[in-house]
Amino acid sequence: MTGQVTRGHAYDGIVEFDNRLPNWWLWSLYLACIYSLMYWVHYHTLGTGDLPSEAYIAEQKAAATKVEAMLAANPVSDEMLRKLAKEPAFVAEGERIFRNQTKCALCHKPDGSGLVGPNLTDDVWIYGAKPMDIYTSILKGREQNLAKGFMGGMQAFEGEGMQFVLRATAYVLSIQNTRVPGKEPEPNAKKEQ
Ligand code: HEC
């Protein structure tokens, strides 16, 4: 090979060129170094930015404050629950609660399509489809009452606190009528919008 500088070693007749690295490559390295330095100083040294986990906590705190103000101004109502179901930060936390295997997913499956408990994404409900009906099912639970044809088995979540129940309700409202194929409707469930 003529006109090319090599590194001066050969293995099995294979030599290595000693080319200069292209400028675009060098610049991407320099910029990555500068960026990581700025990132480190911004997030970890000065603490002037919120890391994603901190931003999530701040967002949740803001959502909780909003709910407390709403609760202070008026009691829980259909209208208030519908409003909460349109708050993305609130619904996101409700989803996290719902998908937790020790909370709702255990009986309703992570996607809400039903297992022991009914499918919550269809348009038929045992205890009503209104936000307050869903809220009451979660807050107080639903006990067996065979005389009225209710199978029960839905535990009360009052003990988890209002913020928990409101978030779980907001999430269930957000998946209502999304019709994920799953458990067949219970015989005593009625079609409701
Ligand atoms: C131990 C199992 C179990 C867990 C855990 C559970 N559920 Fe249920 N859920 C049920 C059963 C069973 C029913 C149906 C009760 C009946 O038929 O009387 C039900 C009913 C409901 C209903 C009323 C459905 C309707 O058709 O009216 C809602 C809403 C609901 N659950 C939401 C939740 C949410 C939200 C969570 C978590 C915070 C949760 N459930 C956790 C078993 C469970």
3D structure, described in words:
By secondary structure, this protein is mainly alpha-helical. The protein has two domains: 6-45, no CATH class; 52-191, Cytochrome c-like domain (Cytochrome Bc1 Complex, Chain D, domain 2, Orthogonal Bundle). It contains seven helices and four strands, in the order E-E-H-H-H-H-H-E-H-H-E. The chain has helices spanning 23-45, 52-73, 78-84, 88-99, 105-108, 131-140, 162-175, and strands at residues 6-11, 14-17, 124-125, 190-191. Strands 1-2 form a two-stranded antiparallel sheet. A two-stranded antiparallel ribbon has the order 3-4. A hairpin with a 2-residue loop joins strand 1 (6-11) and strand 2. Helix 6 packs across helix 7. The protein is elongated. The N and C termini lie far apart (79 Å). Residues 98, 103-104, 106-108, 116-118, 120, 125-127, 134, 137-138, 142, 150-155, 157, 168, 172, 186, 189 line the site of heme C.
Ordered list of secondary-structure elements with their pairings:
Layout: E1 6-11, E2 14-17, H1 23-45, H2 52-73, H3 78-84, H4 88-99, H5 105-108, E3 124-125, H6 131-140, H7 162-175, E4 190-191
Antiparallel strand pairs: 1-2, 3-4
Bound molecules: heme C.
Strand order of the largest sheet: 1-2
Secondary structure tally: strands = 4
Q: Estimate the strand proportion.
A: 5-15%
> Which percent range fits the helix content?
40-55%
Q: Which kinds of small molecule does this entry bind, naming each only once?
A: heme C
Q: What would you call the structural class?
A: mainly alpha
Shape: elongated
CATH class of the largest domain: Mainly Alpha
Q: Could you state the order of secondary-structure elements as H and E?
A: EEHHHHHEHHE
pLDDT below 50 for ≥5 consecutive residues: which ranges?
A: none
